[in-house]
Amino acid sequence: MNKLPFSSQSCCPVCHACDCSFWTRGRDRLLRITDDEFIYLRCGACGACFQAAPPAPAEISKFYPSDYGPYQKWKQTATPGFFRKATGKLLNSGTRKLRHRLKALYQPPRGYSVFLDYGCGSEKFLGTAKHKGWRTIGVDFSESVVEKVKAAGHGGLIAGEKLWREIPDESLTLVRMNHVIEHLYDPADVLQHLFRKLKPGGRLHLATPNPAGLGSRLFGSRWLGLDCPRHIILFSPQLVADCLKKAGFQSVEIFPEFVTKDVARSAGFLLADMGWMKHEKIPSLVDAPLGVAVLALPCFIAAKINLCDRYHVIAQKC
Asked: Which of 3, 6, 211, 273 is at a distance of 20 to 30 A from 115, taking alpha carbons?
């Protein structure tokens, strides 16, 4: 790959090395808010994939409309009879370990247990956690989201420097970052702060796209997980583990997520670019029964060999 002399951010925002080279370029294919191109570089030292010239933090909010929600829960749909039984077995097998681990993680321990959803996006998950017995706090960058969180009976705080003064050290039991770390300009700073706010024995759960996965390799700039310009930095599983350990977490577990919808939407972007599909029809591919059946096996294999399109990490403060 050719070295690129970007003056705005030639050095890696994760490890600060300046051995960076061109990775890919992309457009806002998901929401089409802008026609601008965004260049991503890859750090030769730590492997982080990051925007060479991301929008300024003060300008990024325009790329998050009120209905932004590309990571809605994937619902299993009925597949044609020929594939239904095999697909169902794959779905159960491919999600069992992660499903059981998360079920146990989100059961509140006895006593005063505080759950913080960092980058919550809405009050929905907080409601589920509160019903289980957690004391719940939602954090988001959007004032309107925080207001909805408060109206639903949860604690609500705006992300930013003031946040860290509002949460006492060693007061949190569990922190969730569901597809949030890739949106942050300084993820290391956030992880370090969250580590300080967690109690000893507290855990952090994050999920994020995998730039080393099957979808990224197959579709390049059309990969759904690129989601530029909203995704500022993309992390491989090993890089996330390294960042968490640097922040102070001692125990880090990585779990691949078996899902077909990312590959389906990425294929839709390709078909739309070729003129074979209208952009507004792309979401229909996610739940297309035959598509789910056809993609199930390759996506299952990709998850088994750590080439999944997204993954989860559970880290503990010992």
From this structure: 211
